[in-house]
TrEMBL record:
One of its GO terms (molecular function) is pyridoxal phosphate binding. This is Pyridoxal phosphate-dependent aminotransferase. InterPro entries: Aminotransferase_I/II_large, AspAT/PAT-like, PyrdxlP-dep_Trfase, PyrdxlP-dep_Trfase_major. It comes from Thermogemmata fonticola. Gene3D superfamilies: Type I PLP-dependent aspartate aminotransferase-like (Major domain) (3.40.640.10). Residues 81-385 form the Aminotransferase class I/classII large domain. The keyword Chaperone does not apply.
Length: 434
């Protein structure tokens, strides 16, 4: 029946080799197309319709994007190698050796345990595709990075959320909820430091999470993209926890720490058997990192960072955080972050708007972009994320626009605007959308 329909379609179209007929007669190709279609349909609608949180969109001038940052300029001479050579499987040996040397010697991480990936998002995509099947349970902490949730949803995984809160700069969670969620789970995805709150996991909680992952045979994926941008980030040594290496996947990149997102250089560290599967998928998708970018990344990591640079950056970010905190406090907006790291986690409940509505107001009227908190988990509906990793001039202009937005939109004379408490429950909005 299928052969007859194919021949009839080819005669009716007047073509000897119809692409549609070729797809019908090729079962493997048809299955691939169906799989890609299912993957796209499994994504939430807001992910497909909303602007991508990366890349340079074609927007008008004058927009200040607080979703990303610009930390410093990289100044060095690249090594004198030919840029026409294809990178070896797994990545260039120089870069893999430099990456392996960044971790504690007791972990015994060799270059064979390192896979160079197209950025941190590439590491996540390869790990999920290699280790997850549709219907597997994935445990996430709420709130978390949008990429973690989107990646798991694209694999049609079942999400189990574990609520968290910030306590003295530490990310805390109910252990009983995590114990229930991790049963029969396949992977546990987290970021340390946490995006967007900027908190880090307490050493005791790290060991407890690692113990649970090993006890239930769950793969633990840890994104450390913001470790260098946090005062406590270097202490997050997951690889040093005894007995966790067979279940641990570490991901990192240069996108945030060195402000070279366009190079698309990241890495994935884990057991060799997992990396072999990820490497095969990487070559199947032709998603290798260009050789010049890998050599430049190796030069970046080998370059010694001045001792005064990190404290100076942290001091500047804390000053910017204080400026923004004073502004939001004057208008009754609360923050839910740790007071450290490169982000501000702001509640919009006092405005009578959810995070997405206020983000739309800021972009449409004030040419200012922030990340709606609902993309970070169920608890982020009335939150937005602001990035502190900005040049001083851009940050000051962003504060001016935020101040103008709050002063123009707040209804000072409305009776509902004087309701007690920072989170009014009146159904009437206290902030104008017009």
């Amino acid at each position: 029946m299928i052969r007859w329909a194919t021949d009839w379609w080819r005669r009716w179209r007047g073509r000897s080799r119809s692409p549609t007929a070729w797809l019908w007669r090729n079962a493997a190709e048809s299955e691939t197309v169906n799989r890609l279609a299912r993957a796209m349909l499994s994504l939430p609608g807001e992910v497909l319709s909303a602007p991508l949180p990366w890349g340079e969109e074609a927007h008008g001038g004058g927009v200040i994007d607080l979703r990303h940052g610009a930390i410093r300029n990289v100044s060095f001479l690249p090594p004198s190698h030919s840029s026409n050579a294809l990178p070896p499987a797994g990545g260039c040996g120089e870069l893999r050796a430099v990456v392996a040397a960044r971790y504690v010697p007791a972990a015994e991480i060799s270059p064979q345990n390192v896979l160079i990936t197209p950025g941190g998002s590439g590491a996540l995509s390869l790990a999920l595709e290699a280790c997850l099947d549709p219907g597997d349970r994935v445990v996430l902490f709420d709130p978390c990075s949008p990429l973690l949730a989107w990646g798991a949803q694209s694999r049609r995984a079942r999400l189990a959320w574990v609520p968290t809160w910030v306590e003295d700069g530490w990310c805390r969670f109910p252990r009983a909820v995590l114990e229930r969620a991790i049963r029969r789970a396949r992977m546990l995805l987290l970021a340390d430091p946490v995006n967007p709150t900027g908190a880090v996991f307490h050493p005791e909680d790290r060991e407890y999470i690692a113990w649970l992952a090993a006890a239930h045979d769950v793969l633990l994926y840890v994104d450390q993209a913001f470790a260098e941008l946090h005062p406590r980030g270097e202490a997050a040594r997951w690889e040093a926890i005894p007995g966790i290496r067979p279940h641990l996947l570490l991901a990192d990149s240069l996108s945030w720490s060195h402000n070279v997102r366009g190079w698309r250089v990241g890495w994935l560290i884990g057991p060799r058997v997992v990396l072999r599967a990820c490497q095969a998928l990487q070559h199947l998708h032709a998603a290798v990192v260009p050789t010049p970018c890998q050599w430049l990344a190796a030069a970046c990591l080998e370059e010694s960072r001045p001792q005064h640079e990190r404290p100076a950056l942290f001091q500047r970010w804390q000053k910017q955080r204080q400026q923004a905190g004073d502004l939001f406090q004057r208008w009754g907006l609360e923050t839910g972050d740790s007071g450290q790291g490169g982000f501000l986690w702001i509640s919009t409940a006092a405005l009578g708007l959810d995070g997405r509505q206020w983000a739309e107001v800021l972009e449409r009227k004030y040419r200012l972009r922030v990340l709606p908190g609902e993309l970070c988990g169920p608890s982020g509906r009335n939150m937005v994320r602001l990035g502190l990793l900005q040049h001083p001039g851009h940050w000051q202009e962003a504060l001016n626009r935020l101040s103008r937005c709050l002063s123009e939109g707040k209804q000072r004379t409305s009776p509902c605007a004087t309701a007690p408490g920072p989170f009014p429950h009146s159904p009437r909005a206290a902030f104008s959308l017009s």
